[in-house]
Amino acid sequence: MSFGAPKGEKLRDRSLLTPSLSMNSLSLFKDPKLSTISMLRKVNKLNEDEKVQFEEKDFCQLCGAEFKKFLKPRHHCRTCGRSVCSKCCKGSGENRICDMCITEDENKELKNTYEGVLEEKQNQLEALRQNIISLDKRTAEKKQQLEINKNNLKEDLKKKLKETKAQLSNEIEKNETLKADLEMKREELLKRKEELTNIEYNLGKKKTFLKTKKEKLEEKELELEKIRAKLLKYQEGG
Ligand SMILES: [Zn+2]
Ligand SMILES: [Zn+2]
Questions:
Q1: Helix, strand, or coil here: 83?
Q2: Eight-class DSSP state of 86
Q3: Could you give the number of structural domains in the chain?
Q4: Which residues lie in coiled coils (predicted)?
Q5: N- or C-end of the chain: fewer Cβ atoms within 10 A?
Q6: Which is it for the CA torsion 223, 229, 232, 233, positive or negative?
Q7: Ligand nearest to the CA of 99
Q8: Could you list the residue range(s) of the whole structural domain that residue 72 is in?
Q9: How far apart, in Å, do the first and last CA atoms of the chain sit?
């Protein structure tokens, strides 16, 4: 809505306006020149059914132009009751509205629009915030689960490592025993071999000794045979 809008449209819009005391009209109190009007307006608006009280001024309350009969007639804004010249208002009769009220309405509308946008953005922000919270929560849960999995894996690995180590240790021990056994048996075998060599050596010695004895025995037998033959010859001859 702007000052340049078609008259008819503007007037129709006017009829929909609810004269009520808004934050915008309260802000008028900041301007000392307008405070009286606003106060008046406030009083007027206390009763919705009551008509706006017209102000009877000699000068336009917006531009300050002096009113003159026919040349510059005085008009009254039906919203605030200000005395205004024709340049400072729009519409006619019961639909007349001063530029100040138009600006005020436009501000109100703008404010409503911005408030709407603000609310929408705030809602979006809140939704985003909720999303972030839920995401954070899920992330935390995932992290926790991951931590649990990690710990479980670690425990499993530790257990398996311990088992493998024990197994390996066991096998090493077994191997060690086997090795010791083998070593013992080897030593025993060596000893036996040595004994066998000794026995063989002794046997050889005995064999040689026996052979010598046999030879001597044969020699002696031969001698005995000779003696026997001599004896026989002697007996025959005797
Ligand atoms: Zn004026
Ligand atoms: Zn007005």
A1: strand
A2: G
A3: 1
A4: 107-237
A5: C
A6: negative
A7: 2
A8: 7-126
A9: 191
Residues in Cβ contact with 131 at an 8 Å cutoff, skipping those fewer than 6 apart: none
Ligand nearest to the CA of 79: 2
pLDDT tens digits, one per residue of 35-48: 444 444 444 444 44
Interval between CA 117 and ligand 2 midpoint (Å) = 28
Tell how far the Cα of 219 is from the centroid of ligand 1, in angstroms: 180
Domain CATH for 112: 3.30.40.10
Question: Which ligand has its closest atom nearest to the C-alpha of 72?
Answer: 1
Name the average pLDDT for the chain.
83
Ligand approaching nearest to the C-alpha of 74: 1
ipTM reported for the complex surpasses 0.90: yes
* 88 CA from centroid of ligand 1 (Å): 4
Query: Does 89 reside within a domain?
Result: yes
Q: Is residue 136 part of a domain?
A: no
Q: What is the CA(112)–ligand 1 centre distance, in A?
A: 28
* 48 CA to centre of ligand 1 in angstroms: 27
Report phi then psi at 151, rounded to 5: -65, -40
In a domain, 97, yes or no: yes
Element (H, E) at 143: helix 99-237
Question: What residues are neighbours of ligand 2 (ion), with CB under 5 Å?
Answer: 77, 79-80, 82, 98, 101
**Nearest-ligand number for the alpha carbon of 41:** 2
Is 95 in contact with 14 (CB distance < 8 Å)?
yes
- For residue 98, is it within any domain? yes
Ligand nearest to the CA of 44: 2
Give mean pLDDT, residues 206-231. Answer: 95
